Amino acid sequence: MMVAFGLPLGIISARYRGSWIDNLVRMISLLGVSAPSFVWAVILMLLFAFFWPLFPIAGRITDTYTIQTITGFVFVDTLLSGDLNAFANAAWHIILPAFALALSGIGQAARLTRANMVETYDKPYIEMAQSYGFAEKRIATKYAFKPSLIPSMTIIGLDFAAMLGNDFLVEAVFAWPGLSRYGVAVILRKDLNAIVGTVLVISATFLIVNIIVDILIAFINPRIRFSTRQR
Question: Do 143 and 126 contact (CB within 8 A), yes or no?
């Protein structure tokens, strides 16, 4: 969601900078960054599960579905069981908590993408593309966005890994038996082995995500690949 919503919002805000669209996107980004995730969890639950009952309130899957526990991950278990209806139901349950967790990252990605793209718009090659009559959409999505993607990818990678350790309250609001909630529970029980296991899982995820981000950055920016090869 941070990639699917944050980056396009930043592109739109930079493309229409100074307009009401830019101001609206910046206000949404500021709200997403300033409010904690558990506050958005409560607001989203009230709006889309109570006033407009579009999404389920809590849990990972409806009790009517009986899924054989293979890995412990509902998405994976439903796919391994071949039950697409159960998979869709599990996806429907995860939308609200995932969106509540992603709002802060969406706001950061949008603000950072917008700031970098506005700076990129002042580069000479952007002026050359505009003077040649290139379509504004092409300039925004290709020539201005690609150089501005690297800082946004770095922030998204850090936020993605940090969410594993910071989503205890969101999991509590949606009654979601997640890793962060489990980590807090084992800390209260003073279970040292479980604490070490939780920290190792979060650390490994942090390392893996940042390795993936570094590979993507090297793929996006050819100068990084060429400089590495020359060494």
Answer: yes
Is the dihedral angle over the CA atoms 182, 91, 44, 46 positive or is it negative?
Answer: negative
pLDDT of residue 228 exceeding 80, the answer is no
- Domains of the chain, earliest start first: 2-178 (1.10.3720)
Cβ burial of 178 (10 Å; 0-12, 13-18, 19+) is middle
Distances (CA, A) of 170 to 29, 51, 109, 186, 231: 20, 19, 21, 18, 46
Q: Does residue 126 have a pLDDT over 80?
A: yes
Report residue 184 CA to chain centroid gap: 23
C-alpha radius of gyration, the chain, whole number: 21
pTM over 0.85: no
Please give the Cα distance from 160 to 157 (Å, whole number). 5
Helices (H), 35-178: 37-45, 74-81, 84-120, 124-131, 136-138, 145-166, 168-173
